[in-house]
Amino acid sequence: SLTNSLTPVIRFFVRSFARWLGRSFIQVFIQARPPGSLKGRMIATMNQANFTGILIAGPLYQAFEAAASGLGWPISSVFWMMGLLVLPLALIYRLDSKAPLVRE
What we know:
By secondary structure, the chain is mainly α. It has three helices and no strands. The relative contact order is 0.07.
């Protein structure tokens, strides 16, 4: 039926909108948090990090895809590889909570 064939399309758009909305709130929070004298640096740093991530993502995905196919694993194993790559960062990296506050 038409409803069953549209369900994946609707799910795709709902998930895409949710990701965009969540990312937008996080970026606004990060950009609004530093004092006015440092906002330009923060935005420039975020843009540079995004660009670097885009440059690295393609070759990294191709390497993980080649490893998965070489080992006979399903393509979904690439997501596990990416997760394992980011896991040390999530477990170890912490912001210094005792850093002095900079006031304008």
